[in-house]
Write a structure and sequence with these properties.
Layout: E1 3-9, H1 18-27, E2 35-40, E3 44-50, E4 63-65, E5 70-78, H2 81-90, H3 100-111, E6 121-129, E7 134-139, E8 148-152, E9 157-161, H4 164-170, H5 179-188, E10 202-203, E11 208-213, E12 216-221, H6 240-258, E13 265-268, H7 273-283, E14 291-296, H8 303-313, E15 317-322, H9 327-335, H10 347-357, E16 363-365, H11 370-374, H12 378-391, H13 395-401, H14 404-410, H15 413-420, H16 427-435, H17 439-448, H18 452-457, H19 462-472, H20 481-507, E17 511-513, H21 519-525, H22 541-546, H23 553-556, H24 570-584, H25 597-603, H26 608-624
Helix pairs in contact: 1-4, 2-3, 5-19, 6-21, 7-8, 9-10, 10-20, 12-17, 15-16, 24-26
Length: 625
C-alpha cells in the first residue's frame, strides 16, 4: 500500500501547486516510507509515497507510459495481476517492470475507463491521460483504500489525497462541519463511506470511479454490493454441501492470489473461525511465513485455539503480547491516526496490534469481512433471524411451538414493545404485531438505540439526525435479513471496519489484505440463500461446512469473539471523564464550536460509552476544526 495525492488544474500551470502536493506527500509519509515521487504536466501534478511490496527495484511512482502519454499514482494491490499481465501479453502488450502498477496503465490504455471490470484488489488511483487531458480516479469495491478530494478555484481545480489531513493541511477551504456526518459519528462512531466530516470536502465512495475533463467531474458506480439471495433455493448447487464446496474452492483461489508479494507475508491468527480458515487454506497453497497471535496480558483465552490451528496447518506461531500501557495515552495516540472523528471499541487494540505486526513484515493477511458477509455477529443477526422465522410462521404453528411469554423474551426490544403493549393473553394480536416488525426495523433500532436523545441534546439538528437514520436504513422495500446483511456491508463494513483497519495499519506502514472481500467471493455468496449463512440456531453456516474437514472441531464450533477488543475498567472511565471535563472547561477548546458544551457536561456522569466519542471529537476539533 502507498499514499497518493495530486492536483488536476483545468486552467493549466499545475506545477504552481507543487508546494501543496509536496506538503500532502509529507503528511502521508507513514503510508509510504520507502520512497517518494512527483510528476508535473501542464494540467496535472501527481505525488506518491511508496511502501515497496511488488518489484521493489522498479516500481517507483508516479509511473508513466511514455508511448501513450499516461501517468499513474496508485495506492493498493491488484490481486491476480500476473494472470492479467499474461492475458495482456497475449494481446501484444509488453512490460518493463514486474509491477501491478504497470498492469493498470496497460489496462487503461487498452480499455479506457472500462478497465475496472478486469481489476480485483484493494486500490485507489489516479491516471492522468495527458494526450486527451482526462483524469481518471477510482476506488476499490469495499473502500479498503481511501480517496478524498476538494474542488477549488470555482471548480477549475481538483485536489485529491489518501487522507483528509493531507488536504486540510495543504489547502484553505471552508471547514464547516457536515451536520449529518456529525450525527452519524455521535450516533454510531464513524462517518459513513459516502460522506466526510467537512461539508466542502468529498470522498470517492467505494465501488465508484470519476473522470475530470475540462473542469467537469463525472462520477459513477462501477460495482454495487449485490443483494444476497432471499429464497431458500441455491444458484450454486443442489444444497449446502455443494455451495460449501464451491465457496471453499473460490476462497482458496483468492487466498492464493493474495499471497503474492516480493516481501514476506504473515497472517493475523486470533484463533477464531475466520482467521483460522484463512491460515489453513494458505497452508495448502504453499504459505511459508509466520502467523501472529496477539494477546492482552489479562486475556489469554484464544491462545489455545490459535495453537491448534498453527500445529494442524504446519505453520510457525509467533506469540506477541500487547502491553497494557497507559489507557489515556493509548487513547490519544490511536484516535489521532484518523483524519475524521472515529471511535470503535476495538480501535486501540487494532492500532496496537498493527504497530507490533510491523516488526515482522510489511504485509499481513486478515479475516476481516467474514462477519458481515456470513452473518457472524450473533448478537445482531441470530436474534433477527429468530424474528424472521417467527414472522413466517402460520398462527397455529406459532401457538403450538412457543408460549407467549417465551416469545416476548426472545424478541428484540422493538418487537417486544410492540407486542407487550397489547394484552398479554391475546396471542393472535401479538402474532400480528410481530409480523409487522421487520428485520430491517430491528437492525435500525440496534444501530441507534439510546443515542437519539443525547445527539439532539448536543445541538445536532433533528433534520440532520433523521437524515442520518434514513441513510442507514437501506433501500426502501428491502426488509428481510438478506437486506440487513447487505446494508451492514454497505455502511458498517465500508465505513467502520475498513477505515479502522486502513488507518491503524498504514500508521505503522503495513499493508493488511482481506481475502473475504474479494468481489468474486462476494458475488458467489450473493447466490447462496440466507439460511446457508445464518439462522436463529447458528452463524457462518456455509464457512463452517466448507472448513469441516480442515479445522479442529474446537475451532469449528467457536462463537464470535472480538479480536483486539480491550476491556475498560472504572479507573479508565474516570480518566476519560476527567480529560473530557478539562477540555469542555477550556476556553481554547474548539469542541464548543461543534456541540453544546453544557449539554456535553450534563451527559458525562455515568455515561462512559458517550464520553469516549466526545473526547475523540474534542481532540479532533483542536487539530482540524
Amino acid at each position: 500500500m502507498c499514499g497518493i495525492c495530486g492536483v488536476i488544474s483545468t486552467g493549466g500551470n499545475a506545477s504552481r501547486f507543487e508546494p501543496q502536493v509536496r506538503q500532502m506527500m509529507s503528511r502521508i509519509v507513514h503510508r509510504g516510507p520507502d520512497g517518494e515521487g512527483y510528476s508535473a504536466f501542464e494540467n496535472a501534478a501527481l505525488g506518491h509515497r511508496r511502501l515497496s511490496i511488488i518489484d521493489p527495484q522498479n516500481g517507483q511512482q508516479p509511473m508513466s507510459d511514455t508511448e501513450a502519454d499516461l501517468s499513474i499514482t496508485f495506492n493498493g494491490e491488484i490481486y491476480g495481476f500476473r494472470d492479467t499481465r499474461m492475458s495482456l501479453e497475449e494481446l501484444g502488450d509488453t512490460f518493463r517492470t514486474g509491477t501491478d502498477t504497470e498492469v493498470l496503465l496497460k489496462l487503461y490504455r487498452r480499455y479506457g475507463t472500462d478497465m475496472l471490470s478486469h481489476v480485483s484488489g484493494a486500490f485507489a488511483f489516479c491516471i492522468w491521460d495527458n494526450r486527451h487531458k482526462i483524469a481518471f480516479l477510482a476506488r476499490d469495491r469495499f473502500g479498503e483504500k481511501p480517496l478524498y478530494y476538494l474542488s477549488l478555484e470555482s471548480g477549475r481545480t481538483v485536489a485529491f489525497c489518501s487522507e483528509v489531513e493531507g488536504l486540510s493541511d495543504a489547502f484553505e477551504f471552508d471547514r464547516s462541519i457536515d451536520q449529518i456526518s456529525l450525527a452519524h459519528f455521535l450516533g454510531r462512531g464513524f462517518v459513513p463511506p459516502h460522506r466526510t466530516i467537512f461539508s466542502n470536502m468529498s470522498t470517492l465512495p467505494p465501488g465508484t470511479a470519476m473522470t475530470i475533463i475540462n473542469g467537469e467531474t463525472r462520477t459513477w458506480r462501477y460495482w454495487d454490493i449485490p443483494m444476497p439471495a432471499v429464497t431458500h433455493g441455491c444458484a450454486v448447487g443442489k444444497g449446502l454441501a455443494d455451495a460449501a464446496e464451491g465457496f471453499r474452492d473460490t476462497l482458496l483461489e483468492v487466498v492464493r492470489k493474495q499471497l503474492v508479494a516480493d516481501v514476506p507475508v504473515n497472517f493475523f491468527l486470533s484463533g477464531g473461525l475466520d482467521s483460522s480458515s484463512i491460515v489453513t487454506l494458505a497452508s495448502k497453497v504453499g504459505f511459508q511465513g509466520q502467523v501472529l497471535n496477539y494477546q492482552h496480558s489479562e486475556d489469554q483465552s484464544q491462545l489455545r485455539f490459535a495453537r491448534l490451528v498453527a500445529e494442524r496447518s504446519g505453520v510457525p506461531l509467533t506469540l506477541v503480547d500487547v502491553p497494557a500501557g497507559d489507557p489515556l495515552e493509548m487513547f490519544e495516540k490511536a484516535t489521532a491516526a484518523y483524519g475524521e472523528p472515529f471511535w470503535d471499541s476495538s480501535l486501540i487494540g487494532v492500532f496496537n496490534i498493527c504497530a507490533l505486526a510491523s516488526r515482522y513484515s510489511k504485509v499481513i493477511i486478515s479475516g476481516d469481512g467474514a462477519d458481515e458477509l456470513l452473518g457472524g455477529y450473533v448478537w445482531w443477526y441470530s436474534r433477527i433471524a429468530r424474528l424472521q422465522e417467527i414472522r413466517d410462521m402460520p398462527l397455529l404453528e406459532f401457538l403450538a411451538r412457543m408460549p407467549v411469554a417465551a416469545m416476548a423474551w426472545t424478541m428484540s426490544k422493538l418487537a417486544r414493545r410492540r407486542a407487550a403493549t397489547q394484552a398479554s393473553t391475546d396471542a393472535r394480536l401479538m402474532w400480528n404485531r410481530i409480523r409487522g416488525t421487520t428485520p430491517s426495523a430491528v437492525r435500525e433500532e440496534q444501530k441507534w438505540q439510546g443515542v437519539e436523545g443525547p445527539v439532539l441534546a448536543l445541538g445536532i439538528p433533528k433534520t440532520a439526525l433523521r437524515s442520518a437514520q434514513a441513510e442507514t436504513a437501506g433501500p426502501a422495500g428491502e426488509t428481510g435479513l438478506s437486506a440487513v446483511l447487505q446494508n451492514d456491508q454497505t455502511n458498517y463494513l465500508c465505513g467502520n471496519m475498513m477505515v479502522k483497519t486502513d488507518r491503524a495499519s498504514m500508521r505503522s506502514s503495513i499493508e493488511v489484505r482481506c481475502p473475504f472481500l474479494d468481489h468474486r467471493l462476494v458475488e458467489y455468496l450473493a447466490q447462496v440463500p440466507i439460511d446457508f449463512k445464518v439462522t436463529s440456531r447458528g452463524d457462518k453456516i456455509l464457512l463452517r461446512e466448507a472448513m469441516a474437514n480442515d479445522l479442529p472441531p474446537e475451532v469449528l464450533s467457536r462463537d464470535k469473539q472480538g479480536f483486539g477488543v480491550r476491556r475498560h475498567d472504572r479507573d479508565e472511565d474516570r480518566q476519560i471523564e476527567r480529560k473530557l471535563a478539562d477540555r469542555l472547561g477550556d476556553s481554547d477548546a474548539r469542541i464548543d464550536r461543534i456541540v453544546d458544551p453544557d449539554a456535553a457536561r450534563a451527559l458525562m456522569p455515568g455515561n462512559p460509552g458517550f464520553n469516549r466519542p466526545l473526547l475523540v471529537l474534542s481532540n479532533w476539533a483542536d487539530r482540524h476544526a
